[in-house]
Amino acid sequence: MADSSDMAQTNLPVTASTQSQTTATGDHPTSQVTQSLPIREAKSTKTPTSADNANAKKNVAPTPSTSTTDGSTVAGGEKPLTPAELKKKAKAEKAARRAKEKLAKEGGAGAAGSPASGAPQGRPPVTPKKDASGEVWPVKKEDKSVAVFGHLYGQPRRTTIAGAGKEVHPAVLALGLQLRDYVVCGSSARCVATLLAFKRVIESYTTPLGTSLSRHLTTHLSHQITYLSTCRPLSITQGNAIRALKLAISSIDPSTPELSAKATLCEFIDNFIREKITVADQVIAASAAQKVQDGDVIVTFAGSSIVKQTLLSAHKQEKRFRVSIIDSRPLFEGKNMARALANAGLDVEYSLVHGISHAIKDATKVFLGAHAMTSNGRLYSRVGTALVAMSAKERAGGVEVPVIVCCETVKFTDRVALDSIVVNEIADADELVSAQSAQQLTGVTDPVAPSKPDNKKGGKGASNAAKPATLASDLETSSSPLSNWKDNSNLQLLNIMYDVTPAEYVDMVVTEMGSLPPSAVPIVHRMTE
Amino acid sequence: MSTTKAGTAAADSKSFDIVATYNELLRSDPDITMPIAAIEALVHVLTHCPSSTISETLDLLEKSTAHLKRSIPNPIGLSAGTDLFQRYLITTLQRPGQLGPAGDFKAIRTHLLSNGRLFIRRAKESRQKIAAFGRGFIRDGCTVLTNGGSRAVASLLQKAADEEGGPSAVRFRVIYVLSSMSKNIEEPSGEPEGMETVRALRAKGVPVATIPESAVAYALGKTDMIIVGAEGVVENGGIVSRMGTYQIGLLAKAIGKPFYVVAESHKFVRLFPLGQYDLPIEQHVVDFKSADDIAEEKKRKQQTFDVGNGDKPVELPLSDSVDFTPPHLISALITDSGVLTPSAVSEELIKIWF
């Protein structure tokens, strides 16, 4: 099969670059070097030719190479592939095929930019990964990354635990996949889950001979962190928590016995979670609930756990108010919240973001959750938040509608965001494609659930059907007209995760340190550091 | 003051009426502000009631504060003082050393009381400081519009007027907005708030024009800047002040004239109003009535007159009502810790509290 060699290369850059990150992060102590020697070899020989790559790869990531030659044997073989992986493989094969066809059709080298698509500036400089592979594999595959956001694409999210360093703790391996699949979603939840996983890492950690815990554990943790960041880019909260943890580790006296040092660290983690998140949430919910008054119509966007907590505690105080939840595709985070609030007996209205002008019409207050608050007082949150805040503020009489952000100080960052282009996160565009069943209202809420059957189907298809192209069309034509969007040369999909709300649209930030105007964010951040 | 007498029974501070003290302080010293009067009243409470432990002291303080806040119709201003004093007490008590929790409580007590007095004296001096900071804003030939009876504004204007080297070193004019509402209800013939300042300025040779509130927009064209006082400065940098300030702020913004607020830094309150109706006080400014309601009210009034003044909740008289001027209307706050932008207020507050 002509495809197979191409396939090897398409997969390779992914795994190889993952390793390059892994190895790049730590200045390895001796023991580590011996462990990860093969990987380093693989990395050093990565560049030259495809043949070299295939050889070097053998001991590193056996799955992709064997699977290309014969997909079905692997699926039945020693390591069952995840549906997601199969799907990805099928996609890669398809892409390779398409590239081949195009090459045959157009031949020339000049084909790179002009003829392929209606998005001429879409491709060349922005995606370093694809360009890197381009030298061995002619740049025929159309670049599906949206040009303005080109710098955000980076490498695609990890789809498998294969190729993860052997230092990575099983708890972290599992967490990585959960993060990737949005099973653990929301910046507070991600932070807590990460810290808990790290606690387990620390518990099962033993300091190697010839080094001290305070020096070596940091390196050990950075392997875990690197792995997590390949599953999904780290949130601001995770970053802040990791920084605090590393500081705690490095401030441990090297003469402390290992057991007590580990106990100290575990205690530190527990305290951190309690102080910065659990108790902070209670304080915030209590003080934000005071701002809810009888007769209010409260608009909120997507699903923020802290806003949910606030509204529930306001309800517990027997305030009579109505909640209007605005939600958006593809994560539908508001469904959980709608269900929880409705179950608690609140009056809930649920609409999607395209109905915003209607939902905002009789709003009296807007409560928003946050992913992060930047130092210039801007709110960095789920994409769509800025639209909600703006709609509330700019409507007739909107000056009187306060926009309240509930946010723990652990979400504060010293970064500055001027727009939502420079810093953002891009998720898999295919998430936008999968169709939702029409009748679903507040029932099944797991956002990945609807795409799972698809994956499974795709996985089976990949192992059974030899032709990936037909598979793709078989799979999805019935579900969505966009299913073949990658074949459509004039079409790009953008699945952006966050946006930035200007400080002028935010009246108040409720934190565990009190209520602040957005301009006070840097001051508080400086103090909590 | 009849309302405060009613609250006496509830006072936990044996035989000592903090509310009466507070009101007496305000009445006896025309220069004293509400937060300072509150602090002074609390210091009095501590001197009168011998407490022997820290927790007892704090408990006493909390109870008297709560009582005071309950009995005063508009506790926004005074709560700045009580909060500040409480905070000061706690930080002093937590400090290690002789005056900390380990030290001799008597020593701590005397230290606290003497420092409390020092604090009051300093706060009274702050008006002079403000005047020194703000004087530079008033320049030759400018016209200042102001309202209300703020003593900080009055002292600032007078300071500008009596610069040494002449009867009026800075030649400026003042447009004084006299409120029709702020007239004393008991004696409607009495002069409106601020007339005293007007007379004082005129005596110093400053030309003063007095206008009603309805003429503010008309007069703004002739104005170079607006300077107002405040009852409390809230966390987002907005101010709570005499009814009518908000509309002046809106008009100033619309017409593009700078709007300055003069306030002592002890007036900074830990309060975050989201709008006019989010203040922690009851105000019945907008009171809808039909003819029937009026008749009924008249009847009820007669009845209560017969029964006598019962335990009805303290209500803010219309003349003392306040509004909230949001921070985006304010150009700068002239305080004794410098000239601040509204957003710097929260920084100052956070510094005090953490």
TrEMBL record, chain A:
Transmembrane segments: none annotated. Residues 92-105, 128-137 have a biased composition (Basic and acidic residues). Pfam families: IF-2B. InterPro entries: IF-2B-related (IPR000649), IF_2B-like_C (IPR042529), NagB/RpiA_transferase-like (IPR037171). GO terms for molecular function: translation initiation factor activity. GO terms for cellular component: cytosol. Residues 1-14, 28-37, 475-484 have a biased composition (Polar residues). It is found in: Cytoplasm, Cytosol. This is Translation initiation factor eIF2B subunit delta.
From TrEMBL, chain B:
It is found in: Cytoplasm, Cytosol. Keywords: Cytoplasm, Initiation factor, Protein biosynthesis. One of its GO terms (molecular function) is translation initiation factor activity. Transmembrane segments: none annotated. It comes from the Eukaryota. Its main location: cytoplasm. The keyword Protein biosynthesis applies. InterPro entries: eIF2B_alpha/beta/delta, elF-2B_alpha_N, IF-2B-related, IF_2B-like_C, NagB/RpiA_transferase-like. One of its GO terms (cellular component) is eukaryotic translation initiation factor 2B complex. Belongs to the eIF-2B alpha/beta/delta subunits family. Component of the translation initiation factor 2B (eIF2B) complex which is a heterodecamer of two sets of five different subunits: alpha, beta, gamma, delta and epsilon. Subunits alpha, beta and delta comprise a regulatory subcomplex and subunits epsilon and gamma comprise a catalytic subcomplex. Within the complex, the hexameric regulatory complex resides at the center, with the two heterodimeric catalytic subcomplexes bound on opposite sides. This is Translation initiation factor eIF2B subunit alpha. It comes from Penicillium diatomitis.
